[in-house]
């Protein structure tokens, strides 16, 4: 595994630490359970990190020295990819991998470069997690990606031996970029069904109903939409609802230094709901199931979303979700069965959906049960690992004829 900016050991909830970190960690753990010997390469961002870490889950993490050993925004890492590739290739000379699975487009660049320096060259499969073409479409001038992503990312899609997409919407986007549809397989994101359960105690709450937003505090996640919906509920006489926001910068004063948290607090003040908008910062992953079980609904309303793990975690805990009908959320959340779909960037529709759930406890309970059944059926990490393993094997089989001809 290569995950240049998203270490499987990182705390979740920072600006550049979210679903990809979880995906790499959980997929690696599941593959290790299936008997694979697995190493995750990620960039060293702290001088105190050891070069190699053996995890209790059964895989190894290698911190690659590429650029300064400090945290850098992921959009500034592109110039460091050649160095990362050289160091990975040097490691692979001693023990070449059978398969390389790259996560994010810059990891793909480094992996393809490293594979080209390795004899025999291992096949490289690619999971993008997010596409620059989609990011530009929704963020416009606010997109901070390197300009060269416009041509480098499609190049990765065309050069990779295989692509593992997470949802049908991503397959359509990749095909538009010039990827060969016959080389695209699909494996969704997953959820830890042993950690996230519907049984167990909820976190204690006061007298208000609790709704929640969980994830990185960046504008495109649409947290402001939840605050505006809360204000609409208050104006309609529903003053018994509180919004809990989980995520943001780490540390005791992290939220005070977080520009998006500052903006959102200002909006809550402006709309008169600051007293019922609670910023929790980052919560330990082990605390999340009890937190989720305390919620009447979990909201996930980004401008766009390649997949989204939080709705799966909420459904696994028996909690209904309200999602913007974008990207992978359209597939993971079954509308009117495990949650409710709303148009993107529509706070009035969000307020109506939340009100519908709050007013109907039986509907919430029915959706919660259906959500748990849905994730059990198709979103366990063991299932995702099996689909990924099948993609690896398909690429390896496609190479056999060429290897036999050379022999």
Structural notes for this entry:
It contains 14 helices and 13 strands. By secondary structure, it is an alpha/beta fold. The strands form 3 sheets. The protein has a 6-stranded parallel β-sheet, sandwiched between helices. The chain starts with 18 loop residues before the first helix and ends with a helix. Helix content is 41%, strand content 14%.
Distance between the termini: 29 Å
Total beta-strand segments: 13
Radius of gyration, whole Å: 21 Å
Shape assignment: globular
Mean pLDDT: 92
Count of separate DSSP helical elements: 14
Oligomer kind: single chain
Which bin fits the share of residues in helices?
40-55%
Structural class: alpha/beta
Give the SSE string.
HEEEHEHEHHEHEEHEHEHEHEHEHHH
Percentage of residues in DSSP E strands: 5-15%
Query: Strand arrangement, largest sheet?
Result: 10-9-8-11-12-13
Ranges where pLDDT stays below 50 over 5 or more residues in a row are 11-16
**Biggest β-sheet strands, sense, barrel:** 6 strands, parallel
């Amino acid at each position: 595994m290569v995950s240049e900016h998203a270490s499987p050991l990182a705390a979740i909830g920072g600006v550049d630490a979210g679903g990809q970190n979880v995906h790499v960690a959980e997929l690696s753990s599941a593959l290790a359970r299936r008997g694979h010997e697995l190493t995750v390469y990620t960039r060293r961002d702290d001088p105190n990190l050891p070069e190699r870490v053996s995890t209790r889950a059964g895989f190894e993490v290698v911190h690659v020295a590429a650029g300064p050993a400090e945290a850098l925004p992921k959009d500034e890492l592109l110039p460091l990819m050649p160095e990362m590739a050289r160091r990975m290739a040097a490691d692979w000379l001693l023990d070449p991998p059978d398969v390389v699975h790259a996560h994010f487009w810059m990891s793909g660049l480094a992996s393809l470069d490293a594979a080209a320096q390795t004899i025999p060259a291992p096949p490289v499969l690619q999971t993008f997690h997010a596409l620059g073409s989609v990011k530009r479409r929704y963020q416009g001038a606010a997109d901070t990606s390197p300009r060269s992503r416009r041509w480098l990312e499609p190049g990765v899609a065309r050069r990779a031996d295989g692509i593992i997409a997470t949802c049908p919407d991503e397959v359509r986007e990749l095909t538009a970029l010039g990827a060969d549809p016959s080389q695209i397989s699909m494996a969704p994101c997953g959820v830890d069904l042993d950690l996230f359960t519907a049984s167990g105690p909820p976190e204690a709450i006061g007298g208000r109903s609790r709704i929640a937003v969980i994830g990185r505090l960046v504008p495109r996640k649409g947290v402001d939409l939840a605050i505006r919906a809360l204000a609409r509920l208050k104006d309609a006489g529903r003053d018994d609802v509180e919004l809990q926001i989980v995520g943001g910068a780490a540390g005791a004063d992290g939220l005070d230094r977080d520009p998006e948290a500052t903006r959102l607090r200002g909006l809550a003040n402006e709309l008169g709901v600051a007293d019922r908008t609670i910023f929790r910062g980052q919560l330990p992953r082990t605390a999340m199931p009890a937190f989720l079980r305390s919620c009447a609904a979990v909201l996930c309303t980004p401008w766009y979303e390649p997949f989204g793990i939080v709705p799966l975690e909420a459904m696994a805990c028996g909690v209904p979700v309200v999602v913007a009908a974008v990207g992978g959320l359209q597939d993971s959340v079954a509308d009117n069965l495990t949650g409710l779909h709303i148009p993107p960037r529509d706070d009035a529709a969000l307020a109506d959906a939340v009100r519908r759930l709050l007013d109907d406890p039986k509907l919430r309970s029915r959706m919660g049960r259906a959500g748990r059944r849905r994730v059990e059926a198709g979103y366990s990490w063991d299932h995702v690992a099996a689909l990924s393993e099948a993609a690896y094997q398909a690429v390896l089989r496609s190479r056999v004829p060429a290897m036999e001809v050379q022999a």
